[in-house]
Amino acid sequence: MSETFEKSTENNLLSNENTALEATEDAADTVPKPVTAKAPTVRRVWDGNFNVWWLLSSLVLILFVFYRGFPFLADRWRANNVGPAFAIHMLTMWILVLGCTWNIFHSPSHGKVYRTTHIYVGRVAYVFGLVSVITGFYAAWVERYNAANSGFRIGISIGGGMQILSQIVGYYAVKKTPKNIRLHLVWMHGLFFGGCLIPAMLRLPSMFGATETPTWWFFVAPVISLVMMVLSIWAHLRPAGQTKWI
Fold first, then answer.
1. Is 183 helix (H, G, I), strand (E, B) or coil?
2. Which helix (H) or strand (E) holds 111?
3. How many CB atoms lie within 10 A of CB 245?
4. Distances 197 to 8, 61, 92, 138 between C-alpha atoms, Å
């Protein structure tokens, strides 16, 4: 009788140990396992804020700088027909164009590298942009004044005014508290399409071989540039998942 009681007690103890062990194992399974953090994926350089309006504008600007700009300045330099204001305007304008083209394509949200690059490229472009617009106004209305070319002066002044306004409002948008990133984005498009693209569009006929630019083009070119600006902003601000390239 005593032996049977001892065996029964031993079996009960083993059963309780097994039950406790299983409960411990179950509890261990429910403890969340540590998640190993993955290294952030670096965004590829071509994976930017692409849309067709940015692309078309960039192509026109590249054509303007490298096909029209460099040879034009070199010819005037050899002919001793370039004033200091015009030369400074051309050189600083090229830096502004390249900086704006990059910063529209890659914004700070694309990662740490792009954020740092965006900030420093923007600062350089801002300084050279102010120098460019001041010397550009002086060259158009004083140094290289031509009474017969009033259409070009008016068109280029529209672009210059758009550039100054865009730089002031865009700077204010990121320096105020809290920052207004959307306002900054909109006015940086104004700088790119207004301050950079309008002057290039004014020269578009001559870049394609026209010996004389019709007067009406000096008024149509700014309108086309500003329409492209609105379309680019619209594409840029579309929610994720929607078509953003057009």
1. helix
2. none
3. 12
4. 94, 7, 15, 19
Question: In angstroms, rounded to a whole number, what is the distance separating the alpha carbons of residues 81 and 73?
Answer: 9
* C-beta neighbour count of 89 within 10 angstroms: 25
Structure tokens at 132: 């460019």
How high is the mean pLDDT in each 10-residue block of the chain (246 residues)?
Answer: 49 51 50 54 87 96 85 77 88 94 94 95 95 94 86 88 94 92 95 94 89 90 95 89 76
Other residues' Cβ atoms within 10 Å of the Cβ of residue 104: 23
Q: Are 99 and 125 in contact (CB under 8 A)?
A: yes
Contact assessment for residue 226 and residue 216, using Cβ atoms and an 8 Å cutoff = no
Question: What span, in angstroms and rounded, lies between the C-alpha atoms of 133 and 138?
Answer: 9
By C-alpha distance, which of 166, 49, 165 is closest to 102?
Answer: 49
Closest CA to 90 of 105, 104, 74, 107: 74
Separation CA 235–CA 237 (nearest Å)? 6
How far is 82 from 54, CA to CA, in rounded Å? 32
